[in-house]
Specification:
The complex is a heterodimer of chains A (161) and B (220). Chain A folds into three domains: 1-61, 2-Layer Sandwich (Alpha-Beta Plaits), CATH 3.30.70; 68-121; 130-160, no CATH class. Chain A is 51% helix and 5% strand. Chain A contains six helices and two strands, in the order βααβαααα. Chain A has a two-stranded antiparallel ribbon. Chain B is built from four helices and six strands, in the order E-E-E-H-H-H-H-E-E-E. In chain B, the strands form two sheets. Chain B has a three-stranded antiparallel beta sheet, with no helix packed on it. A three-stranded antiparallel beta sheet of chain B has the order 5-4-6. The chains are: A mainly alpha (161), B alpha+beta (220). At the A-B interface, helix 3, helix 4, helix 5 and helix 6 of A face helix 1, helix 2, helix 3, helix 4 and strand 4 of B.
C-alpha cells in the first residue's frame, strides 16, 4: 500500500511531515513519494487533521462479477450516450451562438460522466479488471492504422500484469 | 393541499407552504405556479414534478429499439473513447500517473477519430428514449440480478438524463435568452447540470460537495 494525498482537501497543517518515518511525505510536488512510503505504515493517514491522506493498494482485488443481462442493458444505454455525445460534438463544431456552444459543452461533459458510470457498473470499474484487459488486448488485434499508439496499449497491459 | 416531488432531487413542493425563495405564497396550488417556476434545490422545471402518492408511471415496454444493435463506426470510436476515459479516471483515482498518461495517449487517438453527427434535436430524442425505455429495461435487469451498484448508477443516470433532456427542451423553446444570464456547472461525480448563479452546496443527485462542480464557461 502507498499513501496518497488529496491536494484539494489538504489544509497544509503538515502533521504528515512531523510523523513520517522516512520523509516520503516531504516533497515539492504535493504528492507522497511512493518509493519511500512504507507498506504497513499509516502514521500520516492517522495524523492528518483534514482527512486528506489515504492508503491505496498496489494490487487490487478481483472485481465483483456482473450478470450478462445487466451488462447488456447498460450497453444499450452506453450506445445511446455515445450517439448523444456525438450530437453535442456536431453542435460544438458549428454552434448557432456562444450560449448554444456552452450548453453543448456542458451536456457533452455530463453525458460522458453518465456513460462512464454505465461502464463502471458493467465490469469496467478498474483497468486491473479482466474485462478491461480483454478490451485492451482486443484493440491490439484490430487494424487501427499506423498512428494507433500500440506501444501505449502494450505498456498499459504490461503495467496491469 | 397536495405535495409534488421533484423527480430529480426529491424536493417536496408542499402547496400548504408555497415557496418563499421564489415569492410563492403559502396555499398556492402546484398547477397555479408560474410556468418559469423551477425547483429551488436543483433548478428542474415544473414538468419534472410528480404528485406525491400519485400513480407510478406505467412500466413502459422495455425492449430496446430494433436499431439498437446497429452500430456505426463512428459510435464504435466514441464508445472506445469513453471506455478509455473511464479507465484513465480510475488510474488517476488510484494516483497512478504513468497508467493515467498511457490511457490519455490511447484515448486521444479515439477522441480524434470520432466523427460528430447529429444536433440538439437528435440528442433530445435519444435522451427521451433513454427515459421512456432504456432506463426501465436496465432497472429491471439490475433489480432481477440484485445488482446494487448498477441500481445506484441507474438512479443517478436517469435523474441526470432527465435534467439533460429538460435543458435541451428549455433551449429549444426559449433559445439563448433562457440561459444567457446564468452560469452553468457540471457535477464531476454524477454529471448533474446546474444552471444559475452558484453551484449548489451539495449536489442534489449524488450529494458531493460544491468543489466537485466544474463551471463550463461561455466562449471557452
Amino acid at each position: 500500500m502507498k499513501a496518497v494525498r488529496n491536494i484539494r482537501l489538504c489544509t497544509k497543517d503538515c502533521l504528515c511531515l512531523f510523523v513520517c518515518p522516512t520523509g516520503a511525505t516531504n516533497t515539492d510536488d504535493g504528492q507522497i513519494d511512493a518509493s519511500r512510503c512504507l507498506d504497513a505504515c499509516r502514521a500520516c493517514v492517522d495524523a492528518c487533521p483534514s482527512g486528506a491522506i489515504s492508503k491505496v493498494p498496489f494490487n487490487f482485488p478481483p472485481q465483483q462479477p456482473k450478470e450478462e443481462a445487466v451488462c447488456a442493458a447498460l450497453s444499450t444505454l452506453l450506445d445511446a450516450k455515445a450517439r448523444q455525445e456525438a450530437a453535442m460534438d456536431a453542435v460544438i463544431s458549428a454552434p448557432a451562438s456562444p450560449v448554444q456552444a456552452q450548453l453543448a459543452q456542458a451536456l457533452k461533459q455530463s453525458i460522458r460522466i453518465v456513460a462512464e458510470d454505465m461502464l463502471r457498473e458493467s465490469g469496467f470499474m478498474l483497468p486491473q479488471g479482466a474485462p478491461a484487459k480483454a478490451f485492451l488486448r482486443g484493440l491490439l488485434q484490430e487494424d487501427l492504422g499506423a498512428d494507433f499508439p500500440r506501444d501505449a496499449v502494450e505498456a498499459l497491459l504490461e503495467a496491469l500484469q | 393541499m397536495r405535495k409534488y416531488v421533484c423527480s430529480v432531487c426529491g424536493y417536496d413542493y408542499d402547496e400548504k407552504d408555497g415557496d418563499k425563495s421564489q415569492g410563492i405564497a403559502p396555499g398556492t396550488r402546484f398547477l397555479d405556479l408560474p410556468e418559469d417556476w423551477v425547483c429551488p434545490i436543483c433548478g428542474a422545471d415544473k414538468s419534472m414534478f410528480e404528485l406525491e402518492g400519485g400513480d407510478e408511471p406505467a412500466p413502459a415496454f422495455a425492449q430496446p429499439a430494433a436499431n439498437e444493435s446497429v452500430k456505426g463506426k463512428n459510435q464504435d470510436m466514441k464508445q472506445r473513447a469513453i471506455m478509455i476515459s473511464n479507465l484513465a479516471k480510475a488510474a488517476s483515482k488510484q494516483h497512478n500517473a504513468p497508467m493515467a498518461s498511457l490511457c490519455a495517449r490511447i484515448g486521444a487517438y479515439f477522441e480524434q477519430r470520432n466523427e460528430a453527427s447529429g444536433d440538439m434535436k437528435t440528442a433530445h430524442q435519444l435522451l427521451n428514449e433513454d427515459i421512456s425505455t432504456r432506463y426501465i429495461a436496465a432497472f429491471n435487469a439490475a433489480r432481477e440480478a440484485g445488482d446494487r451498484g448498477a441500481l445506484r448508477a441507474l438512479t443517478w443516470g436517469e435523474k441526470v438524463t432527465k435534467i439533460q433532456a429538460n435543458i435541451i427542451n428549455r433551449y429549444q423553446k426559449d433559445g439563448d435568452k433562457a440561459f444567457e444570464n446564468d452560469k452553468i456547472f457540471v457535477c464531476e461525480a454524477c454529471g448533474f447540470i446546474f444552471v444559475g448563479e452558484e453551484a449548489p452546496e451539495i449536489c442534489p443527485v449524488c450529494k458531493v460537495p460544491r468543489f466537485k462542480f466544474n463551471q463550463v464557461k461561455r466562449g471557452a
